[in-house]
């Protein structure tokens, strides 16, 4: 009998997008259009639409109407990702999860178990790990002794997330929505680390923090500080710094550039989403999953250990 699985039949993976908002339009649709390993066959969203494919109001309607779908990319806010992923896995679909992979650690653990049971691929994507200079930073740090490190992620929420209500609601993560990108890099390039102290600043009228001040230590005691700030106007910073025996490292631009002692040693154009989709195709082809929960666990730890401070109300 002919093998019809895309991973062995050499034909594109029939994929659907769920949650047609900013990131789906800015990154997922262009990355899919440019990658011959995929054919976009449908979309599901409440009001968002994708031209040229059938559109549905819910993932359940889409899965029922189009059994030929083989994979779904879940680009909606994290609070509703679990139910959608569960429905997709139950229908034997491979699943690409936008970051953060869910609203709780346990629900993503459960999805991992469900995917294993069903024999489908689950990909918890961390786009910032695919920023161009991240691997070079990892290699540099692996070859030296780190004395201390600092993570500074400071951006203007009004510029990057205007009127996104979900981001301020429970499970939306607030400033940890970008902060988890920093953690996805830090957990990839720094030794294992643990939170020892945290303060989370909650605007008086919101259920998610607008800033966070966190201290980590590694198992051997190396101090790592993290400052997240969502009210930064002017220059924006997405930097990981390390003081090491081999010099002072600055990974800046969200992982785009690496400098050692002030000299740029690695810089390339970014291609995070094309790389994420290459990785997902490889997982589908090889029948594997990739679900690293370390960044989400640190966020959970910050909420668990963090002191809560109330700051000025936030209005968009
Ligand atoms: P967004 O612009 O608010 O878009 C999310 C979309 O999800 C909305 O358009 C909404 O669709 C849809 N949606 C909500 N509930 C749904 C459900 N139950 N089923 C199907 N669709 C649903 O948010 P975003 O900025 O794209 O962010 C989405 C995710 O991507 C977040 O986890 C975020 O952290 C991640 N991300 C965002 C960025 C960025 O730069 N914005 C970058 C990287 C990753 P309707 O409009 O149809 O109601």
Automatic annotation (TrEMBL):
Residues of the Gfo/Idh/MocA-like oxidoreductase N-terminal domain: 13-123
InterPro entries in UniProt: Gfo/Idh/MocA-like_OxRdtase_N, Gfo/Idh/MocA_oxidrdct_glycsds, NAD(P)-bd_dom_sf
Pfam families according to UniProt: GFO_IDH_MocA
SUPFAM superfamilies cross-referenced by the UniProt entry: NAD(P)-binding Rossmann-fold domains
Protein name, UniProt field: Gfo/Idh/MocA family protein
Organism: Aquamicrobium soli
Higher taxonomy: Bacteria, Pseudomonadati, Pseudomonadota, Alphaproteobacteria, Hyphomicrobiales
